[in-house]
Write a structure and sequence with these properties.
about 230 residues, alpha+beta, Aminopeptidase, eight-stranded mixed beta sheet, 7 helices, binds coenzyme A
């Protein structure tokens, strides 16, 4: 994998630490994305991903240059609990899409996903100099919506009845956060801002490097929970 100066080695939080993915993380992906409870919340298709689909997804999205993906570890004991990513980094418009999956179900509802989201947003705006981050979330995923709201995302639209799940239709909700939202919420946040360890990389250089890589590799369409409809 090419060295990417815009890509942080580590983002340190209070309870979680985000690190670049390593090849061995494929084993966790194989468990997470075969779990019906996880894919119900993250996948457009109804049903788990096949092992070969998970492998392709891992190689492209976690190890590859399609996205800025980070593994989510608990600081205490270093357990790997999930993954998060910014995809479709776009320097012309200063935008990206955000995706997160805490794959270990016993780690849901403990604030770890919310903290990881804050770390990624801090890096995106404070380190990369992005202007806007968007995401999509299914309307039945109340925990995710509450988490995103608490990180500063606002609802900007909905695709009505876009998802068939559990025997009925649900909306797909579009949310976003702008750098101005982030700056305002950061001013209200107690304690020092937590941004990328390599924040010395200039925003312009960071973005154009990301963009160069984007052009070298086709990025899948869509910005849904898993980063595209498969
Ligand atoms: C969505 C996710 C990132 C949220 O991270 P998290 O750390 O588990 O969330 P938190 O513990 O901070 O909880 C967020 C909010 O949801 C609430 N919540 C927790 N469990 C809940 C539940 N079962 N139902 C509804 N709300 C719930 C919390 O009280 C909190 O609300 P508050 O901000 O008003 O206090 C994480 O749970 C996850 O990855 N889930 C599986 C995959 C997924 O849904 N990915 C997102 C796809 S768009």
């Amino acid at each position: 994998m090419a060295h990417r100066s815009w890509f942080p080695e580590v983002l340190n939080g209070t309870d979680v630490v985000l690190r670049r993915h390593v090849p061995g993380n494929i084993r966790a992906f194989q468990r997470w994305y075969a779990d019906p409870d996880v894919v119900r919340l993250t996948r457009y298709q109804d049903g788990p991903m096949r092992p070969d689909e998970i492998e392709r997804f891992f190689v492209a999205r976690a190890l590859g240059s399609d996205s800025l993906a980070m593994a989510i570890h608990l600081r205490d004991g270093d357990r790997l609990i999930g993954t998060c990513a910014l995809s479709q980094l776009d320097s012309d418009n200063g935008s990206a899409l955000f995706h997160i999956t805490i794959g270990e179900k016993d780690a849901w509802g403990r604030g770890h996903g919310t903290e990881a989201t804050r770390l990624m947003i801090d890096h995106a705006f404070g380190g990369l100099g992005l202007h806007r981050i968007g995401l999509s979330v299914f309307s039945f995923n109340e925990r995710a919506i509450r988490s995103y709201r608490s990180c500063g995302f606002v609802v900007e639209g909905r695709a009505r009845e876009a998802i068939w799940r559990d025997g009925r239709w649900w909306d797909e909700i579009a949310m976003s956060i702008l750098d101005s939202d982030w700056a305002a919420s950061r001013a209200r946040r107690p304690g020092p801002a937590r941004i990328a360890d390599d924040a010395s990389v200039s925003a312009d250089a960071s973005l154009s490097a990301a963009d160069d890589e984007r052009e070298e590799t086709a990025i899948g369409a869509g910005g849904g929970p898993l980063g595209g409809r498969r």
